[in-house]
Amino acid sequence: MTELWQLFTPWWSDLASFGRMGKHGLYVWASVGLTVLALGLEWGVLRRWVKRQRRQAITRTFET
């Protein structure tokens, strides 16, 4: 059980070291940021599409 618990201990000494990620921080955090941006845009586009589909379904219901 002790070995498993050691997996959860951080290897960095402070938060700044975590942010730098051993000289790869810029690449890592830029990738994370772009992924969050892409997912947010996808969510927004899908939300607009669902609203449009619902509006069209209601319009079709009242036209017939």
Overall pLDDT confidence: 90
Kindly name the structural category: mainly alpha
Helical content, roughly? over 70%
The termini sit apart by 67 Å
How would you portray this structure in words?
The protein is mainly alpha-helical and 64 residues long. Helices cover 78% and strands 0% of the residues. The protein has 3 helices and no strands. The longest helix has 39 residues, at 25-63. It is elongated. The termini are far apart. The model has no long low-confidence stretch (mean pLDDT 90).
List strands and helices in order, with pairings.
Elements lengths: L1 H5 L8 H6 L4 H39 L1
For the structure shown, list the relevant keywords.
single chain, 64 residues, mainly alpha
Q: Nutshell version of this structure?
A:
By secondary structure, this protein is mainly α. It has three helices and no strands.
